[in-house]
Design a protein that fits this description.
The chain is mostly helical and 175 residues long. It is built from 5 helices and 3 strands; from the N terminus they run E-H-H-H-E-E-H-H. It has 2 domains: 1-80, no CATH class; 82-175. The chain has helices at residues 6-10, 13-17, 22-57, 105-118, 122-169, and strands spanning 2-4, 61-68, 71-78. Helix 4 (105-118) packs across helix 5 (122-169).
């Protein structure tokens, strides 16, 4: 998605047309043209700040920002899932436990049909589905941990930024 910055500068055309003095209007137009890089930078910073909150809220994706000619590009990027380690739920004959499961008949019938479509026994299909669910749940926990780590890094960056502003405001030391 492209954010057109030209629209911001075009918004000055109407007010500039109200200036009767041609020389004064030309001076203001030169000031606006000279300020364009600073305004573009300010817009980029405002959007970047806004996207930090959006990216913290997104799960499995992030929005990236790039300055391009005559605008700013916003792109949603899917984050790749880290590769899964060998499943802790892989079955071996020695680890099999018996479980009596009571479920309603329509659910059992639907599960049996899905298992048959996959070419598996109902028992094997239910075990695999349960393992997939638990692995997804584990990945969600890892995503939450990564999100918390990102928030901690941002907080540390804000502290550094505040310290830099504070140090910049301090009068120079005199010998």
């Amino acid at each position: 998605m492209r954010v057109a910055i030209d629209a911001i500068f075009d918004a000055f055309d109407g007010p500039l047309a109200l200036i009767d003095d041609n020389d004064q209007r030309k001076r203001i137009e030169r000031v606006l043209a000279a300020s364009r890089p600073a305004v573009e930078n300010a817009i980029y910073r405002v959007l970047s700040e806004s996207l930090r909150g959006v990216n913290d809220a997104l799960d499995g994706a992030r929005v990236e920002l790039r300055i391009v000619e005559n605008g700013i590009d916003l792109e949603v990027v899917e984050e790749a899932e880290p590769p899964l380690p060998e499943s802790e739920f892989a079955m071996s004959a020695a680890d099999v436990e018996k479980l009596t499961l009571r479920i309603i008949e329509p659910l059992k019938k639907a599960a049996a049909e899905a298992a048959a479509e996959d070419g598996r026994s109902l028992n094997n299909w239910i075990s695999a589905a349960l393992a997939r669910h638990l692995e997804r749940r584990s990945r969600t926990g890892r995503r939450t941990a990564r999100r918390a780590a990102r928030q901690a890094r941002r907080a540390a960056d804000q502290v550094d930024e505040a310290l830099n502003r504070y140090e910049g405001a301090m009068p120079p030391e005199t010998p």
